[in-house]
């Protein structure tokens, strides 16, 4: 996970300790996509439940594997898994850097809408756009 995260996010990747904590978190779900032939890691998503909310904490696809639908599939799978375990989860949230137009458009396409903005949220001073997707209640 650490190597894949670094390949996607560079200096903004989680540390080894952060990944250990994430993987040990009982309310978290971490999914990894690998190539069928080589087993090389291509994409990941990490999400966790807090109350009646599912938070996408981190999601990434290595550059050579983008635009193949991996992110959409991982997002759908993590939402389905969490919603199956925690059927009272009513919404899914994610913070997206305001200067990451590609990610913002991806999440809009996936049914997310902007609900708030966190000023100067990221280390580089960029704002975060808080996006929400309402989930059906079982």
Order of helices and strands: HHEEEHEHEE
Give start-end ranges of low-pLDDT stretches.
none
Globally, the shape reads globular
Rg over CA atoms: 15 Å
Number of extended strands: 6
Major beta-sheet overview? 6 strands, mixed
Spatial sequence of strands, sheet with the most strands:
1-2-3-4-6-5
Structural class: alpha+beta
Instruction: Give the fraction of residues assigned to helices.
Output: 25-40%
Integer average pLDDT: 92
Approximately how much beta-strand content do the residues carry?
25-35%
Secondary structure tally, helices: 4
Amino- and carboxy-terminal Cα gap: 32 Å
Give a verbal description of the structure:
- The protein is an alpha+beta fold.
- It contains 4 helices and 6 strands, in the order ααβββαβαββ.
- It has a 6-stranded mixed β-sheet with strand order 1-2-3-4-6-5, sandwiched between helices.
- β2 and β3 form a beta hairpin.
- The mean pLDDT is 92.
């Amino acid at each position: 996970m650490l190597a894949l995260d670094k390949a996607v996010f560079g200096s903004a990747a989680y540390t080894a300790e952060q990944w250990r904590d994430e993987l040990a978190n009982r309310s978290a779900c971490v999914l990894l996509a690998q190539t069928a032939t080589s087993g090389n890691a291509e994409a990941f998503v990490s999400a966790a439940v807090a109350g009646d909310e599912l938070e996408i904490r981190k999601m990434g696809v290595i550059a050579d594997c983008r635009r193949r639908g991996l992110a959409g599939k991982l997002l759908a799978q993590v939402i389905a898994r969490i919603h199956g375990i925690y059927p009272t989860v009513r919404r899914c949230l994610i913070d997206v850097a305001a200067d990451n137009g590609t990610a913002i458009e991806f999440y809009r396409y996936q049914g997310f809408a902007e609900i708030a903005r966190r000023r100067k949220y990221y280390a580089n001073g960029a704002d975060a756009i808080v996006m929400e997707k309402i989930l059906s209640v079982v």
